[in-house]
Amino acid sequence: MRTTVGIIGAGPAGLLLARLLHNAGIDSVVLESRDRAYVEHRQRAGILEQGTVDVLRAAGAGARMDREGLRHDGIELRFAGRRHRVDFPALTGGRSVTVYAQTEVCKDLIARRLEEGGPLLFEAEALAVEDAESQRPRVRFRHAGRQDVLECAYVVGCDGFRGVTRGVFPTSSRVYERTYPYAWLGILADVAPSHDELVYARHDRGFALLSMRSPSVSRLYLQVAADTDADDWTDEAVWDELERRLETGDDWRLERGPVTQKSVTPMRSYVHEPMRHGRVLLAGDAAHIVPPTGAKGLNLAVGDVVTLARALVHERDTGSSELLETYSATCLRRVWQAERFSYDLTTLLHRDPADTPFDARLQLARLDRITSHRGAETDLAEAYTGFPLDA
Ligand SMILES: Cc1cc2nc3c(=O)[nH]c(=O)nc-3n(C[C@H](O)[C@H](O)[C@H](O)COP(=O)(O)OP(=O)(O)OC[C@H]3O[C@@H](n4cnc5c(N)ncnc54)[C@H](O)[C@@H]3O)c2cc1C
């Protein structure tokens, strides 16, 4: 099998890259190890930055997002019994975010790809990437019980944190990593959100987040110990703890409803440098992970593939590989800003078991600064609504 761009992984990065290339007239084949139902129902991110919304719309994959997505103009910070709303448009010159689940983004992109007959092979597991430095890198993969080879002009590893593509990079590649001594216990519940915008709560008992997937489905998270088993928590215990950490001094109430899913997400920061080796490139979680506090993971994946599609089109149109040569540096600049912001927001709101009373007071001082100083609040609002995709 032959193609111009071999894409490993049908998460948001791989699916959107295939769409952008298709729109530009560049052929690709997408290999995905899981089946379609798994990819379409895997619960993950839910906040789309303004730039991501614009890209999906321009790519012809935004119609349902425009109908069903919820525009959010702010978030609420809760700490020390206080509530403070961060008003995004007022602080950023009109920017906002959209609540639209990653599952729905993937469903929309898969539907468009299959309608157009673009090759997207489910249950096709890439086993290895070979000959990265040659003109024809190859992917060995297994599909429908037999092994095959995909010959490409370029291979793009959109295969997430546990993918195989990083394996072809030389040992001189650098990895920067931090793991956190806590995790998120997340629930999905069939109940209308108790607040119309996301609520980020810093509490002495630990962090809590009230979020949503739709007007009738809530997504809520609790900071828990890193080794927590989701089954250790009854639904009632989760609601009780959410109530404690989200409590306010006024008459606000947390509505409870049937829990339909419960899972634990580890917290990790990770960057693999560089993101290109010969004719093999990395995009999305294959190259970098952020803790989910800043809602940056999916948006960074979008930023990478926009940069990459532009570079591939530039080479096709001009014969110059200059944008491919700078692909890694261009993306890493944005990636490190997202790493910084995600780290800052995480350490601002979570309780580290090693924290002293001094650290707790510092957190409150940082929150006080953000909520009382327009410059500090603007910095948060600009980062949350997103860094420019062309920077
Ligand atoms: C449990 C969890 C919860 C998250 N919650 C949030 C959140 O609340 N907010 C947020 O912003 N971000 C969140 N994220 C991060 C966000 O979902 C990711 O950043 C985003 O999915 C990145 O997209 P991607 O396409 O790069 O990778 P992925 O979505 O991981 O897609 C990679 C794809 O590659 C496939 N694949 C892997 N290996 C192979 C192989 N050998 N051959 C073929 N296919 C392969 C995988 O099956 C997968 O479909 C979460 C991540 C996880 C894991």
Short description:
The chain is built from 12 helices and 20 strands. By secondary structure, the chain is α+β, with helices and mostly antiparallel strands. A hairpin with a 2-residue loop joins strand 10 and strand 11.
Q: Which architecture name of the domain at 5-70 and 100-176 and 268-350 does CATH use?
A: 3-Layer(bba) Sandwich
Here the CATH topology of the domain at 5-70 and 100-176 and 268-350 equals FAD/NAD(P)-binding domain
| Name of the top-level CATH class of the domain at 5-70 and 100-176 and 268-350 | Alpha Beta
Biggest β-sheet, characterized? 8 strands, mixed
Structural class: alpha+beta
Overall shape: globular
Mean pLDDT: 96
Based on DSSP secondary structure assignment, what is the total number of beta strands?
Answer: 20
Per DSSP, the total helix count is 12
CATH superfamily heading of the domain at 5-70 and 100-176 and 268-350: FAD/NAD(P)-binding domain
Bound molecules: flavin-adenine dinucleotide
Low-confidence stretches: none
Distance between the termini: 36 Å
* Gyration radius from CA atoms, angstroms: 21 Å
Q: Strands of the biggest beta sheet: in what spatial order?
A: 6-5-14-15-16-13-17-20
Measured by DSSP, the beta-strand proportion falls in: 25-35%
Q: Characterize the quaternary organization of these chains.
A: single chain
Helix content: 25-40%
